[in-house]
């Protein structure tokens, strides 16, 4: 089992466990490896060799608090997912129905196009984009 240090284009660092380096490379080429924070599937492997003590070398540690902030964000996202109804691709339609008192008031989530999201905002309907990593979209087996 290989434990690799990975990073997405947004700077989120995380570990991935793979049967081998070849297994990681195979999954990466098929876009199967994604960031658990933002869902980006363009991840890169970070160097995991022992740190060399060279004069003038700078410490490349993650700034203090980043891991705690990411963990807090994941807990908050899980709470949002637990306390909202997933209406899927009917999001824009259902948000309008709620706004115009044609459906019961409740917290919903789903997917919509950027154009429909802009139209909702122009109608005075409050919406917020919330990227959900694939790891949270489905229950773990």
Structural class: alpha+beta
Distance, first to last CA: 20 Å
Our Rg estimate from Cα atoms comes to 20 Å
So what's the overall shape? elongated
Q: Could you tell me the mean pLDDT?
A: 84
- Give the amount of beta strand, in percent: 5-15%
Q: In the residues, how many domains can be counted?
A: 2
Q: Give the biggest beta sheet.
A: 3 strands, antiparallel
Output the strand order for the largest sheet.
2-1-3
DSSP E strands, number? 5
Give the fraction of residues assigned to helices: 25-40%
Low-confidence parts lasting 5 or more residues at pLDDT below 50? none
Helix and strand run = EEHEHEHEHH
Q: What is the count of DSSP helices, taking H or I runs of 4+ residues? A: 5
How is this structure best described in words?
It is a single chain. The protein is an alpha+beta fold and 141 residues long. It folds into two domains: 1-47 and 62-77, no CATH class; 84-126, no CATH class. 34% of the residues lie in helices and 15% in strands. It has five helices and five strands; from the N terminus they run ββαβαβαβαα. The chain has helices spanning 21-29, 66-82, 91-99, 114-122, 134-137, and strands spanning 2-7, 13-18, 44-45, 85-88, 108-110. The strands form two sheets. A three-stranded antiparallel sheet has the order 2-1-3. Strands 4-5 form a two-stranded parallel sheet. The two termini are 20 Å apart. The mean pLDDT is 84.
């Amino acid at each position: 089992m290989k434990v690799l240090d990975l990073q997405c284009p947004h700077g989120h660092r995380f570990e991935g466990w793979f049967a081998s380096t070849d297994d990681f490379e195979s999954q990466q080429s098929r876009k199967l490896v994604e960031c658990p924070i933002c869902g980006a599937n363009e991840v890169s492997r970070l160097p995991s060799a022992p740190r060399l003590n060279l004069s003038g070398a700078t410490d490349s540690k993650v700034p203090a608090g980043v891991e705690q902030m990411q963990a807090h964000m994941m807990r908050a996202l899980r709470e949002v997912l637990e306390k909202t109804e997933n209406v899927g691709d009917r999001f824009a339609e259902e948000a309008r129905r709620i706004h115009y008192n044609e459906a019961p008031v409740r917290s919903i989530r789903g997917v919509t196009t950027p154009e429909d999201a802009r139209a909702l905002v122009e109608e005075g309907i409050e919406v917020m984009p919330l990227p959900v990593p694939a790891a949270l979209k489905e229950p773990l087996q």
